[in-house]
């Protein structure tokens, strides 16, 4: 039951993050994109920039600091290596962002968090 609650909270956080990005002028190209090497929660585009977005939700604001780590970002970066040609077909720039979601707070958007690709 705990796993189901976490899954539901994660899906809700992804919806919140997508709405947040749309309000900032981004177009959501895809959600929950899986590859053999990792998963990307959201793929968004604004102008000539494609953002591959990892969304993390925590029930307590204090826990957001520990929500993302190097191993998780590496899996996202591995997935982006596979997905880049599919979403950046016209020479768009790409980056990896993180959106942190906690109850009763605006989402926190961390931009360009991975510089390894």
Brief digest:
The protein has 117 residues and is α+β, with helices and mostly antiparallel strands. It is built from 2 helices and 5 strands; from the N terminus they run αβββαββ. It has a single domain (2-110), classed as Trna Endonuclease, Chain: A, domain 1 (3-Layer(aba) Sandwich), CATH 3.40.1350.
Provide an overview of this structure.
With 117 residues, the protein is of the alpha+beta class. The protein has one domain (2-110): 3-Layer(aba) Sandwich (Trna Endonuclease, Chain: A, domain 1), CATH 3.40.1350.10. Helices cover 34% and strands 33% of the residues. The chain has 2 helices and 5 strands, in the order αβββαββ. It has a 5-stranded mixed sheet with strand order 1-2-3-4-5, with helices on both faces. Strand 3, helix 2 (70-87) and strand 4 (93-101) form a beta-alpha-beta unit. This is UPF0102 protein HUO14_02225. It holds the Pfam family UPF0102.
Features:
Trna Endonuclease, Chain: A, domain 1; 2 helices; alpha+beta; single chain; 117 residues
E-strand count: 5
Helicity, as a percent range: 25-40%
Summed up, the domain count is 1
| Unreliable stretches | none
Average pLDDT level: 90
Oligomer: single chain
Number of helices: 2
- DSSP strand content: 25-35%
The order of strands across the largest sheet is: 1-2-3-4-5
End-to-end separation in angstroms reads 38 Å
Largest sheet: 5 strands, mixed
CATH topology: Trna Endonuclease, Chain: A, domain 1
Query: What value does the Rg take, in angstroms?
Result: 14 Å
Sequence of secondary-structure elements: HEEEHEE
| Main CATH class | Alpha Beta
CATH architecture: 3-Layer(aba) Sandwich
Query: What is the 3D shape?
Result: globular
Counting helices, strands and paired strands, the structural category is alpha+beta
Organism: Parasphingorhabdus flavimaris
Family: Belongs to the UPF0102 family.
Pfam families: UPF0102
Protein name: UPF0102 protein HUO14_02225
């Amino acid at each position: 039951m705990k796993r189901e609650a976490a899954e539901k909270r994660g899906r809700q956080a992804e919806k919140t993050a997508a709405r947040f990005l749309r309000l900032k002028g981004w177009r959501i190209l895809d959600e929950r994109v899986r590859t053999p090497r990792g998963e990307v929660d959201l793929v968004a585009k604004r102008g000539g920039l494609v953002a591959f977005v990892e969304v993390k939700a925590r029930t307590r604001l204090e826990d957001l600091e520990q929500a993302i780590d190097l191993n998780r970002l590496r899996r996202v970066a591995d997935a982006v290596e596979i997905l880049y040609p599919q979403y950046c077909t016209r020479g768009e720039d790409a980056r990896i962002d993180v959106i942190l979601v906690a109850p009763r707070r605006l989402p926190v958007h961390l931009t360009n968090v991975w510089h390894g690709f």
